[in-house]
Write a structure and sequence with these properties.
It is built from 6 helices and 12 strands. The protein is an alpha+beta fold. The protein has a domain of 160 residues: Lipoprotein localisation LolA/LolB/LppX (outer membrane lipoprotein receptor (LolB), chain A). Strands 7-8-9-10-11-1-2-3-4-5-6-12 form a 12-stranded mixed beta sheet.
Length: 287
Amino acid sequence: MTLHRPFAWSLLVFLALTRFACAGDAPLNLKPPPTPPVRPPDLGVPAKNAAKDAGKPAEPARPAKNAATDAAKPAEPAGPAKDAAGPVDVAARPKEADKDAVKPEPTPAEIVARANAYLDSARVMTADFVQIGPDGERSEGELYVARPGRMLFHFDPPARLEIVADGRSVAVRDQQLDTQDLYFIGQTPLKFLLADHIDIAKDTTVKSVAIDDNAATIEIEDKATFGGTADIALVFDPATFALKQWTVLDPQGFQTVVTLFNVDLTTEPDPQLFHINESPPSPEIRR
């Protein structure tokens, strides 16, 4: 039986539709005939900003300047990739090990040496002080030091007390009672601070040394103090080792704390401040 060509094409289309219908409702995958390629108008031009240029008309393609000449040139080697943030100076970056490293604490010998260097270099001193006595009473005044051997503690009113050292003796004057007690300078707890050359480790017995973020403390023992042995705790700034405070525990067990403020290590005190009149009414010299 011979089929006419139009009828044959209709029969093939019907069979194809029946096949897809039996397979389900899947859509027909009828591909359109291929179309010839079209050159994009912006071929060869890099997109700067897709979102920004989306609304702009496409720029025409740039014609090649000299295709024959450029084709003959060898391709340039690709350079090393650069960091988008710019070159990085590795040396400028702090090392984590150095950043987190903890500086070692000075040894007791180094602490004593630094404190000794500060005291020995302070030939003169002017400072305000606050004293807390054994009974908790607070007194204020001015301190003057001129090494070797000269010192004055002048207490502000209502206290009427002065402690003066002239290089040989120490006088304790009570202006209210009009009395004066004299001591040999070698009998005073802080005599080593008035020496011409200060050497804490040599002139005293160092009992303990400690340092933290707030203070460096050196506890010493002086056995030549009048009445027996005195314990003295010297407190220094942990960075500069400037003398900030001292605590004296005398042989009778009485504790006195002296704190310094407004320390001046350059002004020369008036020499008359250290004069002692050794012939006041009824002077008493203690040996």
